[in-house]
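hiii so my PI (J.) wants the whole complex modelled not just the main chain, which honestly fair. so below is everything: three entries, each one labled with what it is. i double checked the lines twice but i was tired so who knows lol
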Amino acid sequence: MLTLERRPQPSRTWSAVAPVLAVVITMIAGGAMFAALGQDPVEAIRTIFWEPLFGEFASYYRPQLLVKAAPLILIAIGLALGFRANIWNIGAEGQYIIGALTGAGVGLAFYPAESMLIFPLMVLAGALGGWAWAMIPGLLKVRFGTNEILVSLMLVYVAEQLLAKMALGLLRNPEGRGFPGSRNLRDYPSAHNAELFANTGIHWGVVAALIAVIFAYILLTRHVLGFHIRLAGQAPRAARFAGVAPARLTLICLGLSGALAGLAGLFEVAGPAGQVSIDFNVGYGFTAIIVAFLGRLHPVGILLAGLLMALTYIGGETAESNLGLPAAAIQMFQGMLLFFLLAVDMLTHFRLRWKTAEVA
Amino acid sequence: MTLTRILGAAALTLGLALPALAQDKTKVGFIYVGPVGDGGWTYEHDQGRLAVEEHFGDQVETVFRESVPEGADAERAITQMALQGADLIFTTSFGFMDATMAVAQKFPDVKFEHATGFKTADNVSVYSARFYEGRAIQGHIAGKMTESNIIGYIASFPIPEVIRGINAAYIHARKVNPEVEFKVIWAYTWFDPPKEADAATALIDQGADVILQHTDSTAPQAAAEKAGDVITFGQASDMAEYKPTPRVSSIIDNWAPYYIARTQAVIDGTWESTETWDGIAPGMVEIGEITDAVPADVREEALAMIEAIAAGEYHPFTGPLNKQDGTPWLADGEVADDATLLGMDFFVEGLTAEIPN
Amino acid sequence: MDLSAINPTLLLASLIVASTPILLAAIGELVVERAGVLNLGVEGMMITGAICGFAIAVNTGSPFVGFVAAALGGAVLALLFGFLTQFALANQVASGLALTLFGLGLSALLGQGYQGIKPPPTRALDIPVLSDLPIVGPILFSHDLMVYLALALVAAVWAMLKYTRLGLILRAVGENHDAAHALGYKVVRVRLLAILFGGACAGLGGAYLSLVRVPQWTEGMTAGYGWIALALVVFASWKAGRVLLGAWLFGGISVLQLNLQPTGIPIPAEYLSMSPYLITILVLVIMSGDKSRAPGSLGRMFHASE
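here's the output for the full assembly
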């Protein structure tokens, strides 16, 4: 019978081949689904994977991929640090919202003063906001042993209510004729996270995401904290003997992931989104969890996974408007891709063996 | 920066190449905030799109994107449509306002139509419907038909649009029934069927026998049907499956005539930036069939009121009216101006509920 | 402020209805987690159940057949998760999230053409004598069959975990899968069964929304209830009886806050909207003194290497 056998060491070949294989399988299965929906499968797949990269308007889409991937990568990097240490922050969506609120709040408080210092202050406030929101589950866990998965998740809903309240109340644009939503930060140069290269849309968040990848890589491979994180995840007892204080590690990991999520929120609200509105958050905090795992909790992997995710979003959107595919089909296609990526990933750690039954 | 220059040049070429792409067929794009199957707001916009297709046949091609999140994603979706040669793009949610303005600036040759907003440009029009006219009719029927004198109102968010609706309904309910009381629940959502069902049940449990809703699902209708002896009104779409009771009438958003007219204007080359706020008269706000559950005399009065509003003889916000705190707002016979209505952030006198801020 | 407008009897009756979907989904997930598997795809399975149940009920005219189909639909989706995590040994957190994404898409596709249709009514049981009792009657004895089924399920799971051999095996597998394996229990098989059960329960919970509580089909109608169900399991510290308490508490506060709004209570509406989540956190903190903890092998992958 077919059995799995653990490889002594993860296969380097397979870890490179597996994602490609998964994408190919998804193309076949997804193509079948599109065909079932009465679409030309080849055209649909081509539109999703080819159009954004090499199609007619690739010069617009390519930088957009970075813009879409940036918040995902930024959040996923932070989450991955915690996940490696078995600290489960599921509420990055809430920290993202709060970071956007505090960051935009600081910026709007200075309106209409112009100063070079305003944007850096907003960045700081955004990171602090996300950090503080993540400290709630952190402190409750350390002090009372409360489960951080649940608290961080519940706080997402609370943050959403706060967002609605702010968009309708304190941060509402006084010149917005009573409609919800803050002033648009695009019209306030000092607070605007403007594009760095003309017509690309690339903003400071993209830069921050790249820095976060490098920073996390160094942290995990070269720094004692990274060693502690890995140790706590793989061998909690050994970690304790090695002098790792679990409480401290919990606070550090939750704090870092919260701060990065908050940063992502700030860059998004001050840049591409432009304003605080009731429906500002679109689920990056949850998608980033998937990105973190797709990237195998490794900074470089996360970078690639984030870009792949962004490609399916943007390619999927193109397919929707060019071919009239329903949004649901694209959502399902993404689900499929994730399934296959996860399923094929086992080939990195295991090999399939055809084995005749043995007598033990 | 060579990279910048190349990208910039590419974008410029794209912009210039655009008009050449769209020659024979006129391409009309629609950006929706919800799924076309929401049975309410987005569904009705999509009905308008289908009407455009039917009206123009081969002359026009339509494209749409559903469930587009507001913010950055909306800007990309609109850009995408403009890049692909759309000549006219309808963005059908308030939250798309700034994204529409930003894209419109980059594509001066494409025409944009933004629903429910207030920012315009040479190539951006705004359009919205005077739903409060329909609310006035509902208020009248509700005031006449309530026996408990308690009317439940499921409100979404405290924004002018919703506040206007509550005021219009209340004024006309009180006019025919001075005893009437409005109980308002702010659901803080446009669309959350279970929550809407709970809100309706809560209002019914507290004695309401009429439920008005400014959220988009039919869940409150179902809750009313289950409770029995409660009447409701369809919102955004007809919700005809709940006829003849609990749904006794409805407000239907009918965008088709406007969409057809604006598409025609683009084809003819006569399109100009306009601000449209249409009501019952041009058919943008339609009152769904008033069922037999409504007594004949009440129905006659309601129909007469529809007539009067359509003919421009009657305005639902006509003085004397005071604000909730008792300060005078409109003198006897005075009619509210559009600016005040558009930014309405206060209740009228008599309402006991409060606007959260 | 006029609190007299709130009728406590009706409030309690709607509390029980409001809590049924999350109760069903949560009791299923509890069994899954007791077997040592963390399936975060509850939302996806719930909404798949919601559309399967709705479509089949509409086509057959029978809500009962609809509920059966919903359980099957949820279980089939759960099987996908089971395959990924038990055979392909994929990470459970990521697989669960992917399942949610997939389920939301799948249900929207399946549901095209089912909007704006009324499902066949699921009638409330009319229990002679008991339904007519004052106060107790409307609160406890005037609901549909699913409400009682959900309660029975909670009792059954509680008894199963506590008194039966099956429960013992399930707990053994969840606490320490290597030891369970060494004792000769089929870890993967037990877990797969638990996952299927969890999927079926989530499907039922979804169908309760689309067939009874709302009742209609709309895309995304579960609106986060799957996540609440997940939270309830942790909240209940993996104990069946506490899931019931948690579901009533959450359902109760959700209903109560809506009831409080029109009374003019001087608490802003948006804080009332947050209250179910805040109070859940608060209760959680109070209860975290309790030493019961998560199953030992929760979320860890198992591979029987010889």
